[in-house]
Amino acid sequence: DAKTTQPTSMDCAEGRAANLPCNHSTISGNEYVYWYRQIHSQGPQYIIHGLKNNETNEMASLIITEDRKSSTLILPHATLRDTAVYYCIVRASTGANSKLTFGKGITLSVRP
Amino acid sequence: SAVISQKPSRDICQRGTSLTIQCQVDSQVTMMFWYRQQPGQSLTLIATANQGSEATYESGFVIDKFPISRPNLTFSTLTVSNMSPEDSSIYLCSVARSGANTEAFFGQGTRLTVV
Lengths: 112, 115
Hints:
The complex is a heterodimer.
Chain A: E1 9-13, E2 18-23, E3 31-38, E4 45-50, E5 55-56, E6 61-64, E7 70-75, E8 84-92, E9 106-111
Parallel strand pairs in A: 1-9
Antiparallel strand pairs in A: 2-7, 3-4, 3-8, 5-6, 6-7, 8-9
Chain B: E1 4-7, E2 10-13, E3 19-25, E4 31-37, E5 43-49, E6 56-57, E7 68-72, E8 75-80, E9 89-96, E10 104-106, E11 110-114
Parallel strand pairs in B: 2-11
Antiparallel strand pairs in B: 1-3, 3-8, 4-5, 4-9, 5-6, 7-8, 9-10, 9-11
């Protein structure tokens, strides 16, 4: 079973920031938070991951709460091409649990 | 990053037949995984392909139905055996390098339709 919970869907206006929440209250100390997205009919695309510090790359920012029980993926300036299903996944760094277990994800719709 | 090539990209097959899907990576990777994505659903892990040993299957998936090979660190195959219409799905290969803090990458998938 997936160890994360996400809202089913959300939308935002083009050019605005999209803030996608994720709860992972049972996360263990050696588990990372990963975000992937899947645009229709394509394979999942890696976005970002983090352990406990906030992370930023060219695609997005990841904000992890101090207790690590939740996180938020931020797309700073959403475009129509960001419309996709976004998956928040907790993943152990090594061993049998290093596999990625996908939940249902959140469908982000970016409107013009 | 890793570049993953999956073949075929799509196929339409008769029930009762088998299809072998290939996954080729442009560099050596430690971990290779096979996923299934049924229409309108999320991804479900089928198995971890282990180099030099039998694959590790997830609950609900068996070797007789989904035999997997992994002869080296850059190549794996998944066979969908004795197909039925319920096997119509997208099958995806994923790879990851060893060690902590490394992302996994996905191929574009094989869209299988069983008629």
